[in-house]
Design a protein that fits this description.
Shape: globular
Keywords: Glycosidase, Hydrolase, Metal-binding, Zinc
GO molecular function: DNA-3-methyladenine glycosylase activity; metal ion binding
Radius of gyration: 16 Å
GO biological process, one term: base-excision repair
CATH topology: Endonuclease III, domain 1
Number of domains: 1
Pfam family, one: Adenine_glyco
Protein name: 3-methyladenine DNA glycosylase
CATH superfamily: Hypothetical protein, domain 2
Helix content: 40-55%
Number of strands: 2
């Protein structure tokens, strides 16, 4: 069986592809982590973000949503200068604002997972692409979710970022059909 081509020969990218990408998750902390990392990626490569993932975990206390919601501007500046994270000030501030938005959603829907997964009737969308090049960068569903997130004060959640996020949390399985990790081959 052939695999998806996008991880290349990079061991870190291959590990992410094999163990996480397109695997359904309903854990709010993990969902918040992936939302944060996908937002940090905006304009950068996923490889760069993954290489800084452990620093993000240290800086944001394993993506503790309540902790992140209470970070002051001074604390965010300290994270920017003391940790090997993406230094973009607005991306770092979005961690706090997105954590606050997640907390509101948890009150309304019971969990961030319930809010997100209702868009797909709580089942992953299993695609059957033959080639990596067929995988879209965004869809009408990612556009819909993006608009809803923005309306709820989320930052760095454009349609392309949201589609990558959907792949990251397994709402979408975009492994090529011949990949060992496609849902139908596991």
């Amino acid at each position: 069986m052939s695999a998806c081509l996008w991880p290349g020969n990079n061991p870190m990218m291959q590990l992410y592809h094999d163990q996480e990408w397109c695997r359904p998750s309903h854990d709010d902390s993990y969902l918040f982590e992936m939302l944060t990392l996908e937002g940090a990626q905006s304009g950068l490569s996923w490889n760069i973000v993954l290489s800084k993932r452990e620093e993000y975990k240290r800086a944001f206390r394993n993506f503790d949503i309540v902790y992140c919601s209470k970070l002051s501007d001074e604390e965010l500046e300290g994270i920017r200068t003391q940790y090997n994270v993406i230094k973009h000030q607005l991306k770092l501030k979005s961690v706090r604002s997105n954590a606050l938005a997640v907390l509101k959603i948890q009150l309304e829907f019971g969990s961030f997972s319930n809010f997100l997964w209702r868009y797909t009737d709580f089942k992953p969308i299993i695609n059957h692409w033959e080639l990596d090049g067929q995988i879209p960068a965004q869809t009408s569903l990612s556009e819909q979710i993006s608009k809803d997130l923005k309306r709820r004060s989320f930052k760095f959640v454009g349609s392309v970022t949201v589609y990558s996020f959907m792949q990251a949390i397994g709402m979408v399985d975009d492994h090529v059909r011949s990949c060992l990790h496609h849902t139908n081959n596991r």
